[in-house]
Amino acid sequence: MTAARGRRLERVRGAMAGAGVDVLLLSLGADLPWLTGYEAMPLERLTMLVVPAGAPATLVVPRLEAPRVEPDADVFEVRPWAEGDDPVRIVADLVALGCGSGSTRIAVSDRTWASFVLALQAAMPTAQWSASSKITAPLRAVKDPAEVEALAAASAAADRVAAQLLGGEIGLVGRTEGEVSQDIGRRLLLEGHQRVNFAIVGSGPNSASPHHEAGRRVIEAGEPVVCDFGGTMDGYCSDITRTVWTGGGQPPGEYRELYELLREAQARGVHAATVGTTCEAVDRVPRDVITAGGYGEAFIHRTGHGIGLEEHEDPYIAAGNDVPLQPGHAFSIEPGIYLSGRFGARIEDIVVATTEGPRSLNKVSHELALVDA
């Protein structure tokens, strides 16, 4: 990974030069492990990577956290600070050392706590400030081959849990949504994830709430259950949604027609995700299918989001995003139809844009599974 991080740092410095940024300050969030391999804990103690345009990068880190940092001298130096030290002053001095005196153009991590940003601004009153995401987000959005394969491995692990769901191996009827959510999370860990990021389980009328929080409702026979779950495996995220019908019997005709319309919309969305096509154009494809089927007002969110070290990152497959897809962009395609108070459905795959066409990382069936579980 040392070579990969070195190449990433070179790309970051190139983007800084293009944006007229003198120094990049990265704290909490995925940018830090992307460049250093170290994920900072959300502490009241400041951790910050200082990246001047023309000087070595330095990771300022609490001394008690320093043992967790894997040194990478080709990418950054480590500057531990002790209790009683002023880490804001340390960062400000490093900025001055790397950039000289006068007005400095600083891009600071979007996830940096406001208290630290305010303290840094007070310590460097002549600096000009901007968000680091303008530098790092477009770079992180393009995954290298190793990152794509890490996403593929995480997706395959999530697929194995989804296959258990579709195959009736995960009990649903008579259990609460919360119990099923915990069961799915446990299975993600058994399949190789180190962390469960979410496990949405929405049954019956709750299936019409896209981000429903699994609770005490007991799942009944003869209703839909939307399961949207994912975690982190070796640093990279999975995310998949499948909808099932409980009780083993056939759903009513209206729901079958709604689901088939959704299945067509999702398949067309994947097919449309070709290199050079804008994100908003991809978003429009499943939306047009659903609108033509009479459910346009019931598709209430964007078609997808980027994925990588974070569950949600660039590129966003949404109206108003005119960024064209590039090889290595990884994102979800997840249209949904939601009839408030009645029922809903969603299908989601992770897709990578390649020069050979869209590569879907999730392989589990998109059919509406009728589970007698």
- Low-pLDDT segments: none
DSSP strand tally: 18
For the record, give the distance between the C-alpha atoms at the N and C termini, rounded to a whole number. 44 Å
What class would the helix/strand composition place it in? alpha+beta
Total helical elements: 9
Radius of gyration: 23 Å
In the CATH hierarchy, what is the architecture of the largest domain at level 2? Alpha-Beta Complex
Q: Tell me the overall shape.
A: elongated
Strand order of the largest sheet: 4-3-2-1-5-6
What does the main sheet amount to? 6 strands, mixed
Architecture overview:
With 373 residues, this protein is an alpha+beta fold. The protein has 2 domains: 2-140, 3-Layer(aba) Sandwich (Creatine Amidinohydrolase, Chain A, domain 1), CATH 3.40.350; 142-371, Alpha-Beta Complex (Creatine Amidinohydrolase). The protein is built from 9 helices and 18 strands. The chain has helices at residues 2-19, 31-36, 87-99, 114-123, 133-141, 145-166, 177-190, 253-272, 279-292; strands at 23-26, 48-52, 57-62, 76-81, 105-108, 128-131, 195-203, 224-233, 236-237, 240-246, 304-306, 313-317, 330-333, 336-339, 343-346, 349-352, 359-360, 369-371. A 6-stranded mixed β-sheet has the order 4-3-2-1-5-6. Strands 7, 8, 9, 10 and 18 form a 5-stranded mixed β-sheet that branches. β8 and β9 (236-237) form a beta hairpin. α3 (87-99) crosses α4 (114-123) and α8 runs antiparallel to α9. The longest helix is centred in the middle third of the chain and has 22 residues, at 145-166. The model has no long low-confidence stretch (mean pLDDT 96).
